[in-house]
């Protein structure tokens, strides 16, 4: 669950960075005060009334009807991103690599039932010391 939330957070932050740095436009076409078409990243399609007026007067003449209105909203993205660091010194690189190597094992979980001597067989019995010293459990 924790890994899943971390992936969702990383995805949302990456989407936020891409969304804030890119610019886009929203085009709206109103006909008679009613919204007829909305287009993202392009121009809105004109309504049938505007096309009928253009066909009636010919293609070379541009006629705008009084009832149609186009609105275009341009949202500018952020284009001046600052880089926090310009270069690393050798001391900083050595410190970061040593720190990472030293503390990376702290964040890895151990197995639940870890037995360090599980893979090794017991030593062979050369003498039976209990009967040799005559010490028996009662």
Which helices and strands, and how do they pair?
Blueprint: H1 2-21, E1 24-31, E2 34-40, H2 48-57, E3 68-75, H3 90-103, H4 129-132
Antiparallel strand pairs: 1-2, 1-3
How would you describe what is shown here?
By secondary structure, the chain is α+β, with helices and mostly antiparallel strands. The chain has a domain at 1-75. The chain is built from four helices and three strands, in the order H-E-E-H-E-H-H. It has a three-stranded antiparallel sheet with strand order 2-1-3, with no helix packed on it. Strand 1 and strand 2 form a beta hairpin. The radius of gyration is 38 Å and the shape is elongated.
Give a quick summary of the entry.
The protein contains 4 helices and 3 strands, in the order αββαβαα. With 138 residues, it is α+β, with helices and mostly antiparallel strands. It starts with a helix and ends in a 6-residue tail after the last helix.
Total strands: 3
Instruction: Give the C-alpha Rg.
Output: 38 Å
Count of separate DSSP helical elements: 4
Low-pLDDT residue intervals, each spanning 5 or more residues: none
In angstroms, what separates the terminal alpha carbons?
A: 54 Å
Helix and strand pattern: HEEHEHH
Record the strand order, biggest sheet.
Answer: 2-1-3
Instruction: Name the beta content range.
Output: 15-25%
Helix content: 25-40%
Task: Provide the structure class.
Answer: alpha+beta
Please, what is the average pLDDT?
79
Sheet of most strands: 3 strands, antiparallel
Basic shape: elongated
């Amino acid at each position: 669950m924790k890994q899943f939330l971390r992936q969702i957070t990383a995805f949302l932050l990456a989407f936020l960075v891409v969304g804030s740095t890119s610019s886009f436009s929203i085009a709206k076409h109103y006909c008679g005060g009613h919204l007829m078409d909305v287009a993202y990243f392009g121009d809105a399609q004109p309504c049938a009334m505007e096309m009928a007026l253009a066909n009636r007067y010919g293609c070379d003449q541009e006629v705008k009807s009084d009832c149609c209105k186009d609105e275009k909203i341009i949202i500018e993205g952020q284009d001046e991103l600052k880089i926090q660091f310009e270069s690393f010194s050798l001391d900083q690189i050595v410190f970061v690599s040593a720190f990472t190597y030293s503390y990376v094992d702290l964040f890895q979980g151990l197995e639940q039932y870890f037995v360090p001597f599980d893979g090794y067989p017991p030593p062979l019995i050369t003498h039976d010391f209990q009967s040799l010293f005559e010490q028996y459990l009662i």
